[in-house]
């Protein structure tokens, strides 16, 4: 499985990717999508909300199961990936690029340092 | 946790395994949707050896079956099978099952749910006061379901049995893939057609049959399918799953199983009088199919509410239907809300998501 080294990870199987200007993208890992199986609906109603780390920002529905989505660090939800409305399966096929879930504004970019790096996350799921 | 004789096959195919009813079972191999479509469009294979099998034998075998099951097994001829259930003493259901008539008035095979093997055995044994010989052959019996529109055609070279002429809910014993004495049954839990085969696990039979099935199905793109696809396939047909849609608390009449509840049969069976009364006064809740009109996936235990938010029932099964591309479910609702096209709301994460009652099989 692939765990890109430029991303940070959580024990809840989200990844976060820092963008310019205190923003970041959040999604779920390849391991997470593989455990969930065919994803049929990404339900996110938290745009505009300021959330604390580990709070729920949405829910992902697979054929067989449903799972909450947790925000990795404190931040405000700015945008949901619009492609997921009609193509939730992008989370399965391309979890780190086209399958991103939300764009957030980081409360404190330094928070990312406290998350798992690629090697540590890989260790967790192997 | 128990394993079926096909564990090595599942692992070699990269199956995602999980515990189900005390067995280590394949949930999926290449993905639930992929396996689902293999069965709807061509042919798929399920290892369902976790299911339970009892042989009932002796001059009073039929009498015992008639006194524990709701359907009328006296109608069965040799080579015929029947869907039935075991009512409990509170007008609920101990289990649902299939009764196979091997020899009328003499030998029957009962196929029960894996999660209920011990409960069913004890329940039936409790009625066995005339010395019917009961044998639990669950541990040594393999059950493989080969399902889909191409299933019979591609399996035909493996057996002298005329699979394409085998009528629904009939069976015969024949050789299959060089193994003698295989019970070949035109039954299944997918609504896609096909067969289920029962055979004894001995002398490497399991591997021999498994390999032959996949070799014979190669040209039809045969796929191994797990319990995940089994669930989406049965749900599209509106078939009940014990533990979800029916259980010790639900009456067969509420569950829409009136067609297997023969209240006029001669033999008395548990709760027969209560079910007769229930039929006369009318049921108050009913298992219905529904489809989502707004975005959301219904799940077991979610509440069903009316437009004002009053609770009117609960979901027993739900999924995104791979074939129909919409979310569907089964659930109990109070009778005034159970009519076709009635608008109901599924409470998903504290929001009422609109749905409507539809007929099953879903379409």
TrEMBL record, chain A:
Protein name per UniProt: Glycine cleavage system H protein
Residue span, Lipoyl-binding domain: 23-105
GO CC annotation: cytosol; glycine cleavage complex
GO-annotated biological processes: glycine decarboxylation via glycine cleavage system; protein lipoylation
Gene that this sequence comes from: gcvH
Modified residues (N6-lipoyllysine): 64
InterPro entries given in the database record: 2-oxoA_DH_lipoyl-BS (IPR003016), Biotin_lipoyl (IPR000089), GCV_H (IPR002930), GCV_H/Fam206 (IPR033753), GCV_H_sub (IPR017453), Single_hybrid_motif (IPR011053)
Keywords per UniProt: Lipoyl
Entry-linked SUPFAM superfamilies: Single hybrid motif (SSF51230)
Annotated cofactor note: Binds 1 lipoyl cofactor covalently.
Function: The glycine cleavage system catalyzes the degradation of glycine. The H protein shuttles the methylamine group of glycine from the P protein to the T protein.
Cofactor section: (R)-lipoate
Quaternary structure (record): The glycine cleavage system is composed of four proteins: P, T, L and H.
Listed PANTHER family: GLYCINE CLEAVAGE SYSTEM H PROTEIN (PTHR11715), GLYCINE CLEAVAGE SYSTEM H PROTEIN-RELATED (PTHR11715:SF3)
Family membership noted in the UniProt record: Belongs to the GcvH family.
Automatic annotation (TrEMBL), chain B:
Ranges of residues in domain GCVT N-terminal: 7-265
Gene3D superfamilies: Aminomethyltransferase beta-barrel domains (2.40.30.110), Aminomethyltransferase fragment (4.10.1250.10), Probable tRNA modification gtpase trme, domain 1 (3.30.1360.120)
Assembly behavior: The glycine cleavage system is composed of four proteins: P, T, L and H.
Keywords attached to this entry: Aminotransferase, Methyltransferase, Transferase
Residue span(s) of domain Aminomethyltransferase C-terminal: 285-362
One BP term from GO: glycine decarboxylation via glycine cleavage system
Role this protein plays: The glycine cleavage system catalyzes the degradation of glycine.
Protein name in UniProt: Aminomethyltransferase
Broadest EC class assigned to this enzyme: transferase
One Pfam family per UniProt: GCV_T
Gene designation per UniProt: gcvT
Keyword Transferase: yes
Keyword match Cytoplasm: no
Reactions catalysed according to its record: N(6)-[(R)-S(8)-aminomethyldihydrolipoyl]-L-lysyl-[protein] + (6S)-5,6,7,8-tetrahydrofolate = N(6)-[(R)-dihydrolipoyl]-L-lysyl-[protein] + (6R)-5,10-methylene-5,6,7,8-tetrahydrofolate + NH4(+)
GO annotations of cellular component type: cytosol; glycine cleavage complex
GO molecular function, one term: transaminase activity
EC number: 2.1.2.10
Binding-site residues for substrate, renumbered to this chain: 196
Family the UniProt entry places it in: Belongs to the GcvT family.
């Amino acid at each position: 499985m692939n765990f890109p080294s430029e991303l940070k990870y959580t024990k809840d199987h989200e990844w976060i990717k820092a963008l310019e200007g205190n923003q970041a993208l959040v999604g779920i890992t390849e391991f997470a999508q593989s455990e969930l199986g065919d994803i049929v609906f990404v339900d996110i109603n938290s745009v505009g909300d300021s959330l604390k780390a580990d709070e729920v920002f949405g829910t992902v529905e697979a054929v067989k199961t449903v799972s909450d989505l947790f925000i990795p660090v404190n931040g405000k939800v700015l945008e949901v990936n619009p492609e997921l409305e009609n193509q939730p399966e992008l989370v399965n096929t391309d979890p780190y690029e086209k399958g991103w879930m939300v764009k957030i504004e980081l409360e404190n970019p330094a928070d990312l340092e406290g998350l798992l790096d690629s090697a540590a996350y890989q260790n967790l799921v192997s | 946790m128990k394993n079926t004789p096909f564990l090595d096959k599942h692992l070699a195919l990269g199956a995602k395994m999980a515990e189900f009813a005390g067995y280590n079972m394949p949930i999926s191999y290449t993905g639930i949707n992929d396996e689902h479509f293999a069965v709807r469009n061509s042919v798929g294979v399920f290892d369902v050896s976790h299911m339970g099998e009892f042989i009932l034998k002796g001059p009073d075998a039929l009498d015992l079956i008639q006194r524990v099951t709701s359907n009328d097994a006296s109608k069965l001829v040799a080579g015929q099978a029947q869907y039935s259930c075991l009512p409990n003493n509170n007008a609920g259901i101990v289990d649902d099952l299939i009764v196979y008539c091997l020899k009328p008035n003499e030998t029957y095979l009962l196929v029960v749910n894996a999660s209920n093997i011990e409960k069913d055995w004890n329940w039936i044994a409790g009625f066995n006061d005339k010395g019917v010989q009961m044998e639990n052959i669950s541990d040594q019996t393999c059950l493989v379901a080969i399902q889909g529109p191409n299933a019979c055609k591609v399996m035909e070279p493996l057996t002298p049995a005329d699979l394409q002429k085998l009528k629904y809910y009939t069976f015969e014993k024949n050789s299959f893939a060089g193994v003698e004495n295989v019970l070949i049954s035109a039954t299944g839990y997918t609504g896609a057609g096909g067969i289920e085969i029962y055979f004894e696990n001995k002398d490497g039979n399991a591997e021999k049959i498994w390999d032959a099935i996949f070799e014979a199905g190669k040209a039809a793109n045969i796929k191994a399918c797990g319990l995940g696809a089994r669930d989406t396939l049965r749900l599209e047909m509106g078939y009940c799953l014990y533990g979800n849609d029916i259980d010790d608390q639900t009456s067969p009449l509420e569950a829409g199983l009136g067609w297997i509840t023969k209240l006029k049969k001669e033999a008395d069976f548990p709760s027969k009088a209560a079910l007769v009364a229930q039929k006369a006064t009318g049921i108050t809740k009913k298992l219905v199919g529904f489809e989502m009109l707004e975005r959301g996936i219904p799940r077991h235990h979610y509440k069903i509410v009316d437009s004002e938010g009053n609770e009117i029932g609960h979901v027993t099964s739900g999924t995104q239907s791979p074939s129909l591309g919409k979310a569907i479910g089964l659930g109990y609702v109070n009778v005034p809300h159970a009519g076709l096209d009635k608008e109901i709301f599924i409470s998903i994460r504290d929001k009422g998501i609109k749905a409507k009652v539809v007929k099953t099989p879903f379409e």
